[in-house]
Amino acid sequence: xxxxxxxxxxxxxxxxxxxxxxxxxxxxxxxxxxxxxxxxxxxxxxxxxxxxxxxxxxxxxxxxxxxxxxxxxxxxxxxxxxxxxxxxxxxxxxxxxxxxxxxxxxxxxxxxxxxxx
Length: 117
Description:
The mean pLDDT is 93. The protein has a five-stranded mixed beta sheet with strand order 1-2-3-4-5. Strand 2, helix 1 (27-39) and strand 3 (44-55) form a beta-alpha-beta unit. Helix content is 42%, strand content 32%. The chain is built from five helices and five strands. The chain is an alpha/beta fold and 117 residues long. Helix 1 runs parallel beside helix 2 (57-72). The chain has helices at residues 27-39, 57-72, 84-93, 95-98, 105-110; strands spanning 3-10, 13-22, 44-55, 76-80, 101-102.
């Protein structure tokens, strides 16, 4: 399955909408998009995961690298609206709090404090 990635500026946040399966074959595509955003100084990112049907450890590592890069630049990474299976992977891996996960894109965009799950 393929992966689609679209971005939308919402205030000072960039919403990165990801759809499809995020795995070893497709993670480089998302990583390239993130690298491009960071090069342009976009360091406040919300990943809309509502259309991600699968995410493996390679996909998780993309989000961890994005968080590390944005932290270094004074930015933030938030995950929004993961489907049940993706949320379970985040919970089991212990990343649900580290990667500030929110139930909706709107909550992730407008949040002032670290996440709730």
